[in-house]
Amino acid sequence: MYLLYNLAIWMATPFLLGWAAGRVLQGRLPALAERLGRWPAPPSLDGKPVVWVHAVSLGETKAAEALIRQLRERLPGVGVIWTSSTRTGYAEARRQASPEDVALYPPADYPWVCRRFLRRWKPALVVVMETELWPNLFREIKRVGAGLVLANGRISDRSWPRYRRTRFFWKRVLQYPDAIYAQSPLDAERFLALGAAPGRVRLGGNLKFALRPSSNPLSEALAAAAGGVGPVLVAGSTMPGEETHLLEAFLGLRPDFPALWMILAPRHPERAPEIAAQVRAAGIACQRRSAWVPGQPVVPGVFLLDSAGELAALYQLADAAFIGGTLVPTGGHNLLEPAYFSCPTVVGPSLENFREIAGAFLRARAVVPVASAEELAAALRRLFLNPEEARRLGQAARTLFETHAGELAPLLDDMEWRLRRAAGAAPQSSPVSQPAAAGLAQGK
C-alpha cells in the first residue's frame, strides 16, 4: 500500500508543484522551502528531552499550548518543536514558543523530507493533534524509534465516509501510533473501525477544555477605549457568507441599540479587505485592528480584527458572542473561549466539527441555538434586553467548561513517561492504566 501511495505522490508532484506555486504567489502557502526540508538555524535542542507537537491550524495549536504548559510543569527542561500547517496556526505557535523552542511549518509527506526533519530535530516523542494522519511521516517516526501519540483524536462526520471507504489503507497507517486519545466514544469507535489496535485507543476527552485564554494588550486597550459604545457583540472565526448575515442583523438591531459595537474576527484574516469594503457598503462605520492604536477612541459600528491570536481574550468584553462557521455548512468553530469568560453565545445549526462539545452545551442550555440567519437578530436582541437571562447562560457555559477541564491527566502521564523513558529515567511499563476503548466497538 505504501508503494502505491508514494507512487501516486510522485506522479502527482508536477501538478502539486504547480498548485503550490500558485498558492505561494497568492500569499496562501508560506514557507514552501521550509516544508520541503530547508530550515533556519534555530537554538539547539541537544541534550534535552524533545517533544514535537504538530497541530494543523489555530484552534489545535491553542489546545496544544494547554498540553505543553502542563507538561512543562512536570518536565521543566523539555524542549518543544511546534509545527502548524496554516499561517494563523504558525503565528500562534511562534507566540507560544519559548526562546529555547522551535516553531516551524511541518514537513511535506515525502519520505525523504520526513526523514530529514526527524534526523535534524531528533524528537523523542511526536504528538499529533486531532486527525493529521500522514502515512510517510508516521512510518518514519517509528523507523527512528520515536514515540507517536495521537492526541485529541477525532474523525468528523464529513470526513468519516471517505475514511471508511479507504479503510484498507488507513488500517496500515493506524498501526504506527503508540496511543490514540480520542475526544469521544464515537471518535474512538471510528478509529477502531478503521483498524486501530484496540489496546492503543483510549478516551482522552477534549483538550480544548483545558484552554485558559488570558488578557492581552489589545483586550486591555479596547476595554479602556470602549466606554462610549455598547452593547458589544463579538463575532468570532466567521466564514465567507456569514458576514452578510451579521451585517443584516447589525442593521436590524441598530435602531434599538444606536451605540452597538461589533468586533468581527474572520477565520482567515487575509479576507479583511473585502470584508471592510462590505461593511462600509452597508453604511456601517469600520475600524481595522491593523490601523487602530491604543488611545484612539472606538466608535459604534464594526471593529474588524484583521490579526491572528488576539480573538480569545476579546470575549471578555462581549455582552454576547456569535460563533462563526455555524451559519454556513462548514462545521463551526470553538465554543469554549467565550464559555471561559461566561459570555452568552449564539450558534447556528452547523456544529459538526465540535459535535461532542456542542451537544454538551445544547443539553445544558448553555448556548442559544438559531436554526437560520433570519433568527440571529432576534436571539441577540433577547440577550441584550434580558441581562439576567444572558448572565444565566454565561454562568451555565462557564460551569460546563470547568466540569470538563480536568481530563488531561492520562495523556500527560503517558507523555511524561515516554519522554522520561527515552532519557533512561522511567520504567519500561506504561503508567497509563485506563482500559483501552476495545469495549466501545461492542457498544459497552
Oligomer: single chain
Query: Quick one: overall form?
Result: globular
Span of the ends, CA to CA: 33 Å
Could you name the ranges where pLDDT drops below 50 across 5 or more consecutive residues?
437-444
Structural class: alpha/beta
| β-sheet strand percentage | 5-15%
Number of helices: 18
Total beta strand runs: 14
Radius of gyration over alpha carbons? 23 Å
Major sheet description: 7 strands, parallel
If you average the pLDDT, what whole number results? 88
Helix content: 40-55%
Strand order of the largest sheet: 3-2-1-4-5-6-7
What does this structure look like?
With 444 residues, the protein is α/β, with parallel strands linked by helices. The protein is 42% helix and 14% strand. β8, α11 (242-253) and β9 (261-266) form a beta-alpha-beta unit. The two termini are 33 Å apart. Residues 437-444 have low confidence and may be disordered.
Quick summary of this structure?
42% of the residues lie in helices and 14% in strands.
Key traits:
42% helix; 18 helices; seven-stranded parallel beta sheet; alpha/beta; disordered C terminus
Topology:
Blueprint: H1 2-25, H2 32-35, E1 50-55, H3 58-74, E2 79-84, H4 87-96, E3 102-104, H5 111-121, E4 125-129, H6 135-143, E5 147-153, H7 160-165, H8 167-173, E6 179-182, H9 185-193, E7 201-203, H10 217-225, E8 232-238, H11 242-253, E9 261-266, H12 272-281, E10 286-288, E11 301-304, H13 311-314, E12 320-323, H14 336-340, E13 345-347, H15 355-363, E14 368-369, H16 376-385, H17 387-403, H18 409-422
Parallel strand pairs: 1-2, 1-4, 2-3, 4-5, 5-6, 6-7, 8-9, 8-12, 9-11, 10-11, 12-13, 13-14
